[in-house]
Amino acid sequence: xxxxxxxxxxxxxxxxxxxxxxxYYGKASHAAAYPWEGVNALDAAVLAYNNLSVLRQQMKPTWxxxxxxxxxxxxxxxxxxxxxxxxxxxxxxxxxxAHDYYNVLPNKSLWKAYMENGKKLGIEFISEDVMLNSPSxxxxxxxxxxxxxxxxxYFYIGSNALNHTEQYTEAAGxxxxxxxxxxxxxxxxxxxxDVIFKPELLxxxxxxxxxxxxxxxxxxxxx
Length: 223
Fold this sequence. Notes:
It is built from eight helices and four strands. The chain has two domains: 3-14 and 103-215, Zn peptidases (Aminopeptidase); 20-96, 2-Layer Sandwich (Alpha-Beta Plaits), CATH 3.30.70.360. The chain is elongated, with a radius of gyration of 23 Å. The strands form two sheets. A two-stranded parallel sheet has the order 1-4. Strands 2-3 form a two-stranded antiparallel ribbon. By secondary structure, it is mainly alpha-helical.
C-alpha cells in the first residue's frame, strides 16, 4: 500500500498505537465560600498532562514504534492518569480502544525489489538513514504486515504542502499528482510481477518475514 507524501520513501517508521479514553470525576462546590469541599477534575486532567510530559523523557525511541512494547508504555501512561486522580481526590475511568494498530513491518526483500522497479521509472528515493529518522503516523495496514509480508511506501505528488491539510487535498487532485500516482502504481505492479515470476525473491521475502516476526516476538497463526 502506498501513501502520498512530500518525498519518495520505500517505507517510514509507522508506529503502533493504542487509543485510551480517560474521564475524571470530581465534586462541585462554591469556589469562594467552600473551595475545600470541591474535587477539581480539571486539576486532575492538568496533572495527567504534566505526568505524561515527564514520562516522555523516560520513553525509549522504540516505544513509539514496536507493538511488542506497547503494553509497557500503556501501563506507564495509565499510571500517570491514576496518579493524577490520587493527587486530586478524583475518581478516574480509563477505557482502552478495542482495536490496536500494529507497527508496519516493511519487508526488506520486498521494498528492495520495489526500489529497483521505482528507479527504473525515474523515482528518486530518500536514503534509509533519512527514512529511519522520519517517523510517520499509524495505520491498520500494520496489522496486515503481521499476517502477510508487505510494504508501505510513500510517494511525492509534486507538492510540498503538508499531509491532511486543505492545501494537500487540492494538490492531490491536481493533474500533476496523477502522473506521480500512476508511476508509483506501476512500480508496485512491477514488484508484484517479480514476486510471481521470481521464486528466489519470494523465498527471500518469506525468510525476511519469519525473522521479523521472531524479532517482534509475534506468533503468526496463519502461516
